[in-house]
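[recover] target loaded
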């Protein structure tokens, strides 16, 4: 039999420190799914999204009032130029 261990409460499992649950976004259309759930879920841009698409996703998320966890990733090199 397994021991109980150090499990997390089910109500608090997968919740980020900012209070949101994570939803992985691959394109701009995926943000439309979060339109009615922007108080519970935040968007996280997938790791294999290019910088141009990433910039469009961050702009659209700002319009829809959706929080993005990694919104500044891959955008710094363009600003330096």
């Amino acid at each position: 039999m397994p021991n109980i261990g150090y499990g997390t409460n089910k109500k608090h499992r997968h919740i980020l420190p900012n209070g949101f649950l994570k939803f992985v976004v691959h394109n701009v259309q995926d943000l439309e799914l979060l339109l009615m759930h922007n108080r519970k879920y935040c968007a996280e841009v997938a790791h294999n999204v290019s910088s141009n698409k990433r910039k469009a996703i961050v702009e659209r998320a700002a319009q829809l009032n959706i929080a993005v966890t990694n919104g500044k990733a891959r955008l710094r090199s363009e600003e330096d130029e």
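[recover] notes: The chain has three helices and two strands.
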